[in-house]
Inverse folding.
């Protein structure tokens, strides 16, 4: 099942679906991951089933991108969408989130531009606070920076059924390969369905992106992406899903918003 170990399978359902998949009621037909999943779908409601399918689909897309595999299932996306429609969830691109109103976009854009006027030291903190404001405006379950043993994460958020870990940089020079590899290394220590979002206001060096390589779990945004998103009033889920789809199709972690829309 998506190469999950038993522990990862249990953790996935606990964190993403808030379900104890190890409950004996899901083992009536057998205790393998596949049989527990089949029992779960038989017992759960359509809304929870659709939410689970979306989370599993996201994990599947990440796995295919990570391993540079061609999808072995014919018309997989078409069949997946049809199943969601049958369950009453019309599209994976639609979420229960309410898009921010136009004044919210304008206010966030003004805050982004105002960071340029700050002194260098407080810019990094202000940039992180601005990003949390973007996440909160989209109704995500955002968490501020936290520290695990031996590492620090700038934050996390849940958007459209996808869990993202955040790395945010406001510095004069574009980010190079070493910093990207460091963040990607943090992701490889996490569950296989977790995505990464690396936001660098100054962008990414072309040589650094080449050295970083393709088929990564990180999606990248720069300052121009943020401005374009707010100026054109694109929602965060629209932007990240477009980036994720392009990354799945091409292996490229960074494609600018103006090239996607």
């Amino acid at each position: 099942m998506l190469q999950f170990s038993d522990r990862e399978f249990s953790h996935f359902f606990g964190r993403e679906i808030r379900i104890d998949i190890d409950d004996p009621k899901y083992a009536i037909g057998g205790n393998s991951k596949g049989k527990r999943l089949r029992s779960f779908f038989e017992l759960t409601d359509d809304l929870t089933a659709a939410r689970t399918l979306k989370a599993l689909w996201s994990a599947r897309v990440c796995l295919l991108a990570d391993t540079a595999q061609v999808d072995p299932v014919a018309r997989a996306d078409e069949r997946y969408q049809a199943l969601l429609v049958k369950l009453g969830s019309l599209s994976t691109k639609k979420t229960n989130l309410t898009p921010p109103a136009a004044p919210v976009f304008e206010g966030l854009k003004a805050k982004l531009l105002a960071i340029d006027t700050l002194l260098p030291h407080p810019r990094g903190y202000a940039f992180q606070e601005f990003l949390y404001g973007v996440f909160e405006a989209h109704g995500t379950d955002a968490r501020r920076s936290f520290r695990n043993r031996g590492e620090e994460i700038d934050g996390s958020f849940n958007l459209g059924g996808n869990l993202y870990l955040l790395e945010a940089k406001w510095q004069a020079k574009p980010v190079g390969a070493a910093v990207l590899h460091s963040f990607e290394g943090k992701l490889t220590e996490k569950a296989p369905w977790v995505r990464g979002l690396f936001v660098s206001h100054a962008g990414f060096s072309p040589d650094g992106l080449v050295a970083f390589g393709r088929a990564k779990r990180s999606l990248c945004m720069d300052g121009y992406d943020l401005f374009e998103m707010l100026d054109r009033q694109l929602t965060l889920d629209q932007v990240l899903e477009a980036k994720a789809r392009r990354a799945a199709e091409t292996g490229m972690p960074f494609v600018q918003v103006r090239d996607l829309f």
Notes: DSSP finds eleven helices and six strands in the chain. The radius of gyration is 19 Å. The beta strands are 146-148, 151-153, 155-159, 162-169, 195-200, 218-222.
